Amino acid sequence: MRIAPIALAGIAAIAVPAIAQRALPGAVKVDPAVAKARDAALKDDVAYDIVEGLTTEVGQRLAGTEAEARARAWAVVKLKALGFKNVHIETYTMPVWVRGEEKAEIVGPYPQKLTLAALGRSGATPPAGITAPVVYFPTFNDLLAAPDGSLTGKIAFISNQMKTTQDGSGYGEYGAARFVGPNIAAKKGAVAVIIRSIGTDHGRWPHTGGTNWTPGVTPIPAAALSVADAEQLERIFARTDKVSLHLTLTPRTLPDAESGTVVAKVPGTDPKAGTIVVGGHLDSWDLATGAIDDGAGVAITTAAAKRLLDGPRPRRTIRVVWFGAEEPGGFGGAAYAKAHAGETFAMAGESDFGADNIWRFNVNFPDSAKAIGDRIGVALAPLGITRGREVAGDGTDVGPLFKLGVSAVDLNQSGTRYFDWHHTAEDTLDKIDPEQLRQNVAAWTAVLWIVANAPEDWGKATPKD
Ligand code: ZN
Ligand code: ZN
After folding, report:
1. Which ligand places an atom closest to the C-alpha of 282?
2. Which ligand is nearest to the CA of 198?
3. Residue 362's beta-bridge partner residues?
4. Which of 112, 122, 123, 220 is most solvent-facing, going by the fewest CB within 10 Å?
5. C-alpha 98 chain-centroid distance
6. Are 76 and 120 within one domain?
């Protein structure tokens, strides 16, 4: 790290790391009302109550299915019971993909079953399955380098070992094997694809998740092996490259169906000051109850907004948004931005990275509202959260709002455990640490309080309810 000396008149020069200089809070003081709300949120039980209730009383919430509809009904009852105003559902239609049978068995040289899960939007094998030789690609780049046509009649196995990172950036890097690997293999002639799960564990729970097909490419069967089974298959390939697999995957794509996003309001006093959107996604994959992805996110942001609902009426209106259909491709977020494109928003933010401690924040406000970032900095510092160097704007659900120019606050949660369970049968309530969940609520409470009551004005605002 570069050390930048600073010289003070009459005082011997001292060396302060550049990053520390940047983080010096200067004369900014924490508003006592913000500190009080933040500290009270460290005893919050509302977030845990929401995620416990949602995962217990609804369970898995696959987008576009009756389970997701039950989750919306549950959300409406819950948000009304918490006292939120104008609780309603905004609907849209979307293609629905449902899991079928999924089995894999090595035919030779060492016959044995493998554990796997189909990827979202996977194509299907015939009901009796297919048997084909397997071609092993140790990395995603090895697949890219394979000549066109070289996979004709074969099953591609993309191993691709994801590493843990605190900021979750490994997902973008290693996730390519899932996001686009099957499409690339299909174009090179493969009859099916199996990937090593995009996960940081070594367990036998496969990680599902969506995959993408470009126009003109017919979806082929595509599934993720559990990490343990992928490692087993690698050991077999270390002995021989003559491996054949019997694979049965029978997912289906159903006719377009209704999905929806649940919206609730904390009324503000100044309708011209712009609306704040905060939330997470209500849908989950179908393998578990979606506690960390993303029951925690809707729970955290709702509990934080509830603290403003129960406090002095804020200047700005806050909309708590439980987006639908994030997992299969962000349908809820896209529909929301489209429906509300004519409005002006003061800020948007989402929580969709589990329930572990927030360690960093970033903002993106125009110059006229720049001081908000400094006020957030001093309010979050006691929670162990420091300011990052990035420009905020993360999130599948609020991403379409950012594209419209809406200001952003990102609160980054620790990702060191998240990808052990992400999109697996292990995404269950026990993975949530109530203490860390409360730290999240405290941080979002402070952010919402500061932004909702900020005296600055940025942009013109004509929000509708
Ligand atoms: Zn998510
Ligand atoms: Zn997810």
Report:
1. 1
2. 2
3. 410
4. 112
5. 20
6. no
| Residues spanned by the domain of 179 | 100-250
Q: Which ligand is nearest to the CA of 295?
A: 1
- Whether residue 407 sits in one domain with residue 289: yes
CA of 421 to the centre of ligand 2 (A): 10
Residues 73 and 123 in one domain: no
The encoded tokens of residue 102 equal 């999924």
Three-state DSSP class for 106? strand
pLDDT confidence tier of residue 6, bands split at 50, 70 and 90? very low
pLDDT tens-digit readout, 35-76: 999 999 999 999 999 999 999 999 999 999 999 999 999 999
CATH number for 352: 3.40.630.10
Judge whether 22 lies within some domain: no
Return the number of other C-beta atoms located less than 10 Å from residue 43's C-beta: 9
The percentage of residues in the chain with a pLDDT greater than 90, rounded to a whole number, is 91
Torsion-angle region of 423 (φ positive above 0: left; ψ -120 to 50: alpha; else: beta): left
Over residues 301-310, mean pLDDT: 98
**How far is ligand 1, taken at its centre, from the CA of residue 17, in Å?**
36
List pLDDT tens digits, range 374-384: 999 999 999 99
Q: What is the mean pLDDT of the chain?
A: 94
CA of 210 to the centre of ligand 1 (A): 11
Residue 197 Cα to ligand 1 midpoint, Å, equals 16
Residues involved in catalysis: 326
CATH of the domain at 111: 3.50.30.30
Percent above pLDDT 70 for the chain: 93
**Count: domains in the chain:** 2
Q: Does 460 fall in a domain?
A: no
**pTM score:** 0.94
* 293 C-alpha to ligand 1 centroid (Å): 5
Phi, psi of 455 (to 5 degrees): -75, -20
Q: How many angstroms does the Cα of residue 279 sit away from the middle of ligand 1? A: 11
Q: Which pLDDT tens digit goes with each residue over 149-183?
A: 999 999 999 999 999 999 998 898 899 999 999 99
- Same structural domain for residues 300 and 410? yes
Cα dihedral 342, 343, 348, 354 sign: negative
Model confidence at 27, pLDDT cuts 50, 70, 90, reads: confident
Ligand in nearest proximity to the CA of 120: 2
Do the beta carbons of residue 194 and residue 244 sit within 8 Å?
no
Q: Are residues 344 and 448 in the same domain?
A: yes
Token pair listed for 296: 């925690």
